Amino acid sequence: MLKIDVHTHILPRDIPKWKEKFGYEGFIALEHHKPCCARMLKDDGRFFREIEDNCWSPSRRVEEMDAHGVDIQVLSTVPVMFSYWTKPDDGADIAKYLNDDLAESSAQFPERFIALGTLPMQDTDLAVKELERCKDIGLAGVEIGTNVNQLNLSEPQFFDIFAACEKLEMAVFVHPWEMMGQAEMPKYWLPWLVGMPAETSRAICSLIFSGVLEHLPNLRICFAHGGGSFPATIGRIQHGFDVRPDLCAVENTVDPRDYVKRLYFDSLVHDAAALDYLVSFAGADRIMLGTDYPFPLGELEPGKLIESMSYDNETKEMLLSGSALNWLNIEKLD
Questions:
Q1: What CATH number has the domain bearing residue 74?
Q2: DSSP reduced 3-state for 151
Q3: CA distance 165 to 84
Q4: What is the pLDDT of residue 43?
Q5: pLDDT digits (tens, 9 = 90+) for 174-193
Q6: Does the pTM of the predicted model rise above 0.70?
Q7: Do residues 291 and 299 touch, judged by C-beta distance below 8 A?
Q8: b/e code 148-175 from CB counts within 10 Å (16+ = b)
Q9: Is position 246 within any domain?
């Protein structure tokens, strides 16, 4: 069966010295300290993450895709590169650089890669302008964070960006980052284990309760990591909406459950019972293979969980590729 992995991250091999260009700190730099490996560093020298060449080399990625039977990867930047905290013009420059690299990487293997751009979400006009450019250079959509400098995606300044995504028929992939409460739980990798699922539910609830999804019914939007904690807490969310409409239903009176089958989710839940619940919750036509390649918290054998399930072939085909084609608005592949 065709395998399309909608959740993979890539970086440019060389990242400009933005601290020197823009005159302030906080940016990510790459230190290629040995063959096929690099350290991601904050430009003040603080270590962030060790990565290998599969994080920047399209040819290396194709080798690993072949080894795992993955036909197509959907490429997006590493969320730490979003740079929403920068001055708007600087953020736009960074987005342009990253998007050009995404386009170039996908062009090297056009039958194997589809790319999603990044936007300077801190400025609506610049974000829409870059979104239009993403469309022009052949990107299929955009990846955005679950918050923008801790502002929820429900804030009115973001609506025009979502509206432009709908109008331009660009897919949207929402990925958690800058997790709320991160400073209060620094040990045990809790921001990634606890904060990320909560961040994704935060984004979904914000878009539902604010009416963004109600006003943009054709927006094709996917949420990483199986929607985080949202699917497992939909009962609580719906109940809160029912008993405290004065707090929850102030901008949208439509039940939260009514939106479930309008959303897309990746399959990255690491548990057979959780995947089974997600399929019954949203429908197989709303769930897509996603691995978080090439990072260790992802699914290390792409598609293994889906393939291990007792679903019929039609369901597995939908999970492995059909839903992705729908989300990306691709009728068929040549």
A1: 3.20.20.140
A2: strand
A3: 18
A4: 72
A5: 999 999 999 999 999 999 99
A6: yes
A7: yes
A8: beeebbbeeebbebbebbbeeebbbbbb
A9: yes
* Residue 90 resides in a domain: yes
Please tell me the total count of domains within the chain. 1
Longest CA span, the chain: 59
Q: DSSP string spanning 243-274? A: H-HHHHSSS--S-GGGGGGG-EEE---S-HHH
Backbone angles phi, psi at 311, to 5 degrees: -75, 155
Domain that holds residue 77: 4-10+59-327
* In a domain? residue 334: no
Task: Read off φ and ψ for residue 301, nearest 5 degrees.
Answer: -120, 95
Per the document, the length of the chain is 334
Dihedral class, residue 29 (left if φ above 0, else alpha if ψ from -120 to 50, else beta): beta
Q: Is residue 54 part of a domain?
A: no
Query: DSSP labels for 205-244?
Result: HHHHHTTHHHH-TT--EEESGGGTTTGGGHHHHHHHHHH-
Q: Pairing relation of β-strands 37-42 and 151-152?
A: unpaired
pLDDT in tens, 124-148: 999 999 999 999 999 999 999 999 9
**Distance between CA atoms of 283 and 277, rounded to whole angstroms?**
10
